[in-house]
Amino acid sequence: xxxxxxxxxxxxxxAILALAGCSHGSAASSxxxxxxxxxxxxxxxxxxxLAPLSSTALAKLLLDENDLGGDYTRMxxxxxxxxxxxxxxxxxxxxxxxxxxxxxxxxxxxxxASFTYAGGSNSELAExxxxxxxxxxxxxxxxxFDAMVSCPTYQVVSGSTVVNVGTQVTAAPDLGDEQWSQLxxxxxxxxxxxxxxxxIRIGNVLLLVSGAPGLVDANLAKALNKAxxxx
Length: 231
What we know:
9 strands; about 30% strand; 7 helices; alpha+beta
């Protein structure tokens, strides 16, 4: 069984963020974290909160082949797996239930795209966008990432398949309002795959980019710039 990096987050937390085809949360991270205060006008009044974007609006903000270049090919969305998925060896993740084993985060307004890159064997990239209030986005993604990094190693069991997972917090770029980042190592059947997951919250939009570490680093700013265009 080949472990697709764009489904790794889903296996453990995002459908582990998505991949599971998760970044660092406040409880286990040392990276920058902004306060949750609302922007203030010059007259001293807080700015009104922005309404969440629809799934249709989010889909228009996803990266596409024109943004990424000719070496990237968009992948069809895979159907949800029929097998039950369970987390073993990480009580914090198991406690999250579906939030730890689903194919996406539990926000109703969302959009996702996955790509393959022709430049290497470890060559998948996934982008997810979610929209809700800033407080709900921060709490939701923070709980998932904190749970994931609380266990250096654990297993994800799907049917007869057992995936060994290792997690390591990494420094997130100082972008947006809040940031999380982590490296995930998946081992199955003698194969090993390293996935990077970086999440950035900008206002009422949460961006999650997952995949080969080099591809995530190369395309994170592009994804953020495109998402910010709607804010």
